[in-house]
Amino acid sequence: MGAGAADASCTLHVAAHALASSLQPQVAAVFFASAAFTLALAVLLGSLRLRRPPWWCACAVCECYLSASWAGEFDNLCDWYAHLLRAVPGRTVHVHVLGNVLTANPPTVEHMLRARFDNYPKGAPFSAILADFLGRGIFNVDGDAWLFQRKLAAAELASPAIRAFAANVVASELRCRLIPLLHGSASSSASKLLDLQDVFRRFAFDCICKISFGLDPGCLELSLPMSAFADAFDAASMLSARRAAAPMHVLWKLKRLLNVGEERELRDAIGLVDALAAEVIRQRRKLASSGGGDDLLSRFMGSINDDKYLRDIVVSFMLAGRDTVASALTAFFLLLSDHPRVADAIRDEVSRVTKEDNPLTIATPEKLKDMHYVHTALYECMRLFPPVQFDSKFAAGDDTLPDGTFVARGTRVTYHAYAMGRMESVWGSDCAEFRPERWLRGGRFVPESPYRYPVFQGGVRVCIGKELAIMEMKAAIVAVVQRFDIEAVGRSSRRPKFAPGLTATFAGGLPVRVRRRREHVGGQECPPG
Ligand code: HEM
């Protein structure tokens, strides 16, 4: 995952102030003594090597980052990065204080994800940032540990039996949970709003738990309501992303050592995430002892006898399956609310493709494949709102990027999918428009190179859940658009405001008003039992 869609306004003053307010006096003394020592050491080392420490750069970009003055003009850090990247011909910018080279240049993206893949691993610094949350899960490792998890999970997700099972899970979640919930909202008073982002998170979480772990989260025996665990998951994602956006990693490391401030919050959140994962593993074992177990987690359990490692795998799949899908669906309905003609075109296509069926049944994967317009609308949505806004690697050795930028060993290199989707040089002068037709040729969806559209990444570590995610999202879109009109209230797709996290999340959720399109009683869609 991209380590941080975080809007970090991390000046040294702000960091010091925040720290001071979170520390007990005696702890503060120890902390400031250590910080002063670190600072003095860095200054000394910096002067001996006759160059500034990386977090002490005074160039315009770094000053803007450190003083957070970009926030005067832009709503989100990612919008400022997109602006910077548009302004340079090579579409590559070095933010020295973060030791981060950002790129929106397709040949450079291909270079790092495919041609020189071996030189651009996740790397030790990335793993350190996310180690507490993701451990040795697939997103946070390289080499053998990565290959082992990838091979096993990719084979499982590609199996026809799992695909059929996944389609049934999605259909049942739509029929029995999501649609009745929306019917309920449509029946309530007109002034009552629903947070659609929250609804899609619950939908995607239930789907991934059933598909990957063979478990309904509703059956878990937990000490707290599921919402507490969901909040903990979000907090862990947001606080881990903050680490990645900090210019001085020594600060979060010290805070972690002293267990204060945000690091204390992170530890508490991860404690709940651990409890959730432990319960998933316990229930899976219990079910396995009474037969059954053809799911992804059971496969991993067959080869791994280490509960900590299993925990990391469970957490990674929860993150992969919940937040990405929920992010894309939320953005989709925000865009649709601003573009009713796209909703009409989707309804036309659904009636064309499902002509002999009842339009209110859940579309099968085969029918969904024939819905090219729905596909283009979804791709177009993720061009403007990629769930993983950016993704970083660390150069294992010195290198020169295709645009001529020199990258020293150990430098973080980030491809910025959000900026690329809004780049005139990649998508033309109407790049800011939501125009699904740009993906259609002769009525059929035609994909782009993954290096121009790295929404699912590309190359050697391309997303292995892509087909599953697309089926799930298309099924949800068709089911909702056929039955309801969704009006986003107080939000515009032109001025999105993101919250920090590993995946793109709208700050304050997506409040919507739901209106029923046909007279239809929600509960009747779900067969009894
Ligand atoms: C809209 C939906 C999704 C999007 C946009 C998306 C995007 C991505 C991206 C950008 C990566 C690269 C992340 C990195 O290297 O840090 C990735 C990797 C991955 N995704 Fe997805 N993903 C989606 C849904 C899913 C789902 C539903 C699953 C679960 C079954 C999944 C499983 C994975 C896994 C296991 C990897 C790691 C691949 C590797 O490192 O070899 N994804 N995805």
UniProtKB/TrEMBL annotation:
Pfam families for the chain: p450
Keyword terms of this UniProt record: Heme, Iron, Membrane, Metal-binding, Oxidoreductase, Transmembrane, Transmembrane helix
SUPFAM superfamilies noted in UniProt: Cytochrome P450 (SSF48264)
Keyword Nucleus: no
GO molecular function: heme binding; iron ion binding; monooxygenase activity; oxidoreductase activity, acting on paired donors, with incorporation or reduction of molecular oxygen
TM ranges: 27-46
Cofactor(s) the record lists: heme
Name of the featured protein: Cytochrome P450
Species per Swiss-Prot/TrEMBL record: Brachypodium distachyon
